[in-house]
Every structure is written in structure tokens, then in C-alpha cells.
Amino acid sequence: MSDFNDNSTIWVDLSSGKLVKLIEQRIEECHLDLGDLTILTDARTEEDGITLLTAARAGARRIIAVGPPRPTVRGAQVEAMVRRFAAEEGLESRIQFVNSVKEVDLDQVDIVALDRQSSLIKPAILQQLPSSTVLGLMFDSRNAVSGGLDITNRSSYELQISDINIADPRVGVLEFLSPLCQLQIQQAGLSLPGLQCLLLCDNEMAPALAGGLTRAGAQVTVRETLEQVESGVYDALILALTPSRDYRLDLNAISRLPDLIPHGMLLQFWGDIDRSAARYFSVEIWPPVHPGRGQMGIRLSALGSEPVVALRVSALKAAVAARRLSSLPPHRGGQLAAASG
């Protein structure tokens, strides 16, 4: 679910100048200032490119961009994108591209900007960072339910962590969640007007999702769990439950779906599904390919650059706020720096 074409709009927006304008506008709205800070991040994806462009435009003293372990076309495109921007803005001296973290003086790093599948999430790297360094998650930490950074098990290092809540209005993504869900429904081949939807949502997204779907003409029933649904027949079940290490729809839950959506479809917006059970009970799922544990079933970039820019700028803002709290001891046991505003 993450091939190059998913982010084609980002390249179009860069070529037209729209991307840089969006970044500058969001930086101004959030009062993001990275002055005197050194940022370490990946340079593998288009979203990483937005992080790099944002850091440069927000005045970071130094930006270290770590490329993929093996050369890729995508990584080369990202590097070319950032280098072109840096040249146009006269910022070449601030951005350093490296092939390995071994080339980096980690003692000088203030913020590590981490995507969910970042190559920088390794104990050997984290243990070398000074305790004042902030791990800035460029995603909602509730997505981190497998692999990568385990925020509940950090006994070998002490670092502050900042993250964001994508449903927090201050982050700037909330307004895109319902359009994103509607786009996913359309991609699944369903028509919104008159669609009988069962929305399973146990988090802050519920009002935005339900309201947007209703305004689009769908008939929406909202429940926090499937156990709260006694009966009914629906055209679509939209799963928007907070991810966990367990399936949000397990074998027992899936076994009920042939009665609830006998001719309908299960849409995975957020939260994991036992897809083996779904195949056994002949339940059709969209997207047909598993997006990855804890990940949304449709990428924010499907709506273009704007929600990605909002997310990345807000995430960097949270990381800066955590970094400025230098008088406080590092957070332990996976507690998150409350710095999303």
C-alpha cells in the first residue's frame, strides 16, 4: 500500500510550487521554529522529503538525512527533491545526506524525526543519543503496535518522546479524516448516498467521521464495539477502532459479519482484522491487501500534500516543545511528552 504512485500528488505539488507554499503557511500557523537545533531523519519516502523541507524552511541549524540502506529510485527522487529546494533557498550548507548513521556525530542531535518504519529505530542507535535528545514521532503513537519503536520497553535508554494525536484539532488533520474515509469507500466501489453504514469507532475520530459521512448522504450507525450491535443489516462496516497488539476484529467478531453485512463490505480504516477469519467466512475486505499492523487502510497522502504537511509540521512542533523542556527529566516507561499544540 505504499508504492511510489501513492504519493504522486506530492511530486505534482512540488513542481507547481504548491508544496512549499503549504509548508510555509503551516509553519507560520504553528509558529514552528527549529533555530539552533540539529535534526536527524530518514530520506526514503516522499513524506520524509516533506519533513526535510519543513525542517529546512523552519530554520534548523543542521539537518542530517539518512538514505535507505540500499539505493532505491524512490530514495534518489527524495534526495533530488530536497537538494533542488535547498539550492533554490540557499540552504545547501545546512543539509547533509549520508548513507549510514555511522557517519553521524550523534552527540550533536537534538531531535530524531521518526516515521513508523524508520531505519533509525534501532537500540544500537538510540543508546548512543544524549538524554536531551527527543524522539519526535511523525505519526500517532497508537499506530506503533508492532515492530519498530516499542514505547513500553525502553529500559536500556532514557529519551523523551513526543507524538501527536491525529484527531486533535490543533494538529490540523482532523478535517481530513472524513474525506479520507469517504475516498476509501469510493475506492471500494461503493456509493455514499443512501449507504447503510455501521461505524465502529472507540476514539476521538467518531464525531468527524460520522458527521462527514452523514453529510455525504450515508445512513450511519455508530458503536464503540461490535458487542454493542445486537442486530441489523448494513451495506458497509467501517472499522475505525484504535489499534492494539490484538485484532480489533478477531475470529469471533468476524463470524458475526455474514449476518450484519450479508451483501456488504468490511472497510479497514483503522485497526487490524483477522484476515484469515474473514476469508474463511467469505467477508470481503477493503483494502484487499493488508496495510501493515497498526496502519491506516488508506494513506493520508491519498488526499494530496496538505494533510501530510499538517501532520509533519505539527509533529515537529511537538518535538520542539519537548526539546525545550530541558529542565525536566527524561520520560520513562513509554510516557509521551505532552506537546501536540
Number of domains: 2
CATH hierarchy, class of the largest domain = Alpha Beta
Q: Which residues form runs of ≥5 with pLDDT under 50?
A: 1-5, 330-341
The main sheet orders its strands as: 3-2-1-4-5-6
The H/E string reads: HHEHEHEEHEEHEHEEHHEHEH
CATH superfamily of the largest domain: NAD(P)-binding Rossmann-like Domain
Which strand-content bin applies to the residues? 15-25%
Number of contiguous helices: 11
Largest sheet: 6 strands, parallel
Radius of gyration: 21 Å
Task: State the distance separating the first and last CA atoms.
Answer: 30 Å
| Average of the residue pLDDT scores | 89
Q: Percent helix among the residues?
A: 25-40%
The shape, in one word, is elongated
CATH architecture classification name of the largest domain: 3-Layer(aba) Sandwich
Protein model, in words:
By secondary structure, the chain is α/β, with parallel strands linked by helices. The chain folds into two domains: 187 residues, NAD(P)-binding Rossmann-like Domain (Rossmann fold, 3-Layer(aba) Sandwich); 98 residues, Response regulator (Rossmann fold), CATH 3.40.50.2300. Helices cover 33% and strands 16% of the residues. The strands form two sheets. A six-stranded parallel β-sheet has the order 3-2-1-4-5-6, covered by helices on one side. The protein has a five-stranded parallel β-sheet with strand order 8-7-9-10-11, with helices on one face. Strand 1, helix 3 and strand 2 form a beta-alpha-beta unit. The longest helix is centred in the last third of the chain and has 20 residues. The radius of gyration is 21 Å and the shape is elongated. The N terminus and C terminus are likely disordered.
